[in-house]
Amino acid sequence: MMLGPLLLIFLIVFGAFLIGMFVKKENNVRIGKFLDAKILLAGYCVLLVCSIIIFTFLPDSLKDTRYEAADYTGEDDYNQFMTGLMEGSIDQVPIAVLQKEWNFPNKEKSFDVKTMGWQDGDPFIIVDDRGESGEISVKHIVSRSVLQNLDITSEVPSPKIAFKEGVLTVKSQPDKEIVINQYTGSFVTNQFKGVTAFGGESFESSIGTDAIYITVPKGTLVSGPVEWIRDHE
User: Fold this and answer.
1) What is the pLDDT of residues 63-113, one digit of tens each?
2) Which of 8, 10, 13 is nearest to 48 (CA)?
3) Residues 194, 203: Cα–Cα separation, whole Å
4) What is the Cα–Cα distance from 44 to 16, expressed in whole angstroms?
5) Residue 69 pairs with which residues in a beta bridge?
């Protein structure tokens, strides 16, 4: 959201409008018969400072988000990501990002995996039986997502993970809406640069793949919609 910047812009425009409306030939500004130029400008400065302070302490969810530029990921990157998952070497894949991690103590030799809230089938869940004794590690791993040349991987929501009474629950989260704003130069400037009114660059986009990577001690039986790394087969 752009609440903070919009507030600043509004105050600047409003202040300039008031000054323009009430400037007289003798360079004296009055609103009715009560406020002179000094009071008007002082009040405007106070509002501007307050708006900056408010914007500084706004939650991140209400601020503009800046994304780093990045090249999109192609088919070769996707194949490398999937191969890394199936071979248990995902930590060596450059485009693989650890989004979130959970660890649960467990001494049982078996447990079930249950998925909830998934509208397009079950998520991709892979099990690696090379973990430490007495612990279950769950990682949400995603391949890089690039939208219009901007890396938005950090915006991919992680599912909720819970482990209770021998059941590991993987619950999906609502989709997140992302709005990309593209800014271009003014009409006057674009004339000399040869940019048309409906110009602007278009970039390739690639929405990444995500997976739930479960690491368990050797000999642990995991049932449910899961696949095992190839070393287990």
Assistant:
1) 555 666 666 677 788 888 889 999 989 988 988 999 999 999 988 899 999
2) 8
3) 19
4) 9
5) 150
Please, what sign has the CA dihedral across residues 64, 65, 71, 75? negative
Give the type of residue at 111.
Answer: F
> What digits encode the pLDDT tens for the residues 140-182?
999 888 877 788 888 888 999 999 989 999 999 888 787 776 6
Q: Which amino acid is at 205?
A: S
**Out of 20-29, 40-49, 54-63, 194-203, least confident range:** 20-29
132: Cβ–Cβ under 8 A, 6 or more apart, which residues? 217
* AA letter at 78: Y
Q: Which residue has the tokens 């009040």?
A: 43
Distance CA 216, CA 205 (A): 35
- For position 155, what pLDDT does the model report? 86
Quote the CA–CA distance of 108 and 164 in Å, as a whole number: 12
Please check the confidence at residue 114 and state whether its pLDDT lies above 70. yes
DSSP state of 48: H
**Measured CA distances, 99 to 43, 57, 106, 142 (Å):** 46, 26, 23, 7
